[in-house]
Amino acid sequence: MGKAKLHFAGILIIIIIALAGVGQEDAAIFYASAYGFLALVSVIFVVSIPILAKVRSKFTLYLLGNRRWIGIYTFVFAIIHFVVVMHFFFSWDFSSALNNTYRFLGLIALLILAAMTATSTNTAMRKMGRNWKRLHYLVYVALVVVIIHSFNLGLLVLNNNTTKTAVVIIVIIIISWKIYVKFRKNAPKAAEPQAL
Asked: How far apart are CA 145 and CA 70, in angstroms?
């Protein structure tokens, strides 16, 4: 039942954005911006789930248990963004689309998300061993790359400094927390006091 709710929410978000674009003066720009921003927010959300799970509740445990599917929907949102951009702006002409550094960075982020989605099964996890975790750490590379891509090409949601500032602050908090937890985990433990 839990996964059914997640699938319902993911599909509902896609449909709501699709319906919101109907009748827009420039629907292509709306769809490209909306699905692109949704992909960005989703990547941020995925990497923040372990932090949110520190506050133990049914909801945060639900998020932690379904992080894999949330990541898959992140890739779906990114694919929709990619298809909209390629179809409406470049008529599937890859040479024209990729002659811009920021669009090329977007493709790199998409490929990272694709690799993570393709290896999100338990079977892949077992077969890859430690390499699975190494691959999935690339989500942080994807996050930085998506931010650079979005900040330079965003046409609607990310065309103002207030939104950009908010995104940067949230990402700095998340990455700082991750670094803090990692150093704390690897820090040598204080020696136990010796009994006299």
From this structure: 19
**For residue 76, is it within any domain?**
yes
Q: Domain span at residue 91?
A: 2-174
Helix, strand or coil for residue 100?
Answer: coil
**Residue 3 to residues 66, 68, 70, Cα–Cα distance (Å):** 7, 11, 10
Residue 181 domain flag: no
Per-residue pLDDT of the chain (196 residues; tens, 9 = 90+): 578 889 999 999 999 999 999 988 899 999 999 999 999 999 999 999 988 888 888 888 888 889 999 999 999 999 999 999 999 999 999 999 989 999 999 999 999 999 999 999 889 989 998 888 888 889 999 999 999 999 988 767 777 788 888 899 998 998 888 888 777 776 665 544 444 4
Measured CA to CA, the distance from residue 40 to residue 77 in angstroms comes to: 9
The structure tokens 């908010």 sit at 166
Domain count, the chain: 1
Other Cβ atoms within 10 Å of 80 Cβ, number = 20
168 in any annotated domain? yes
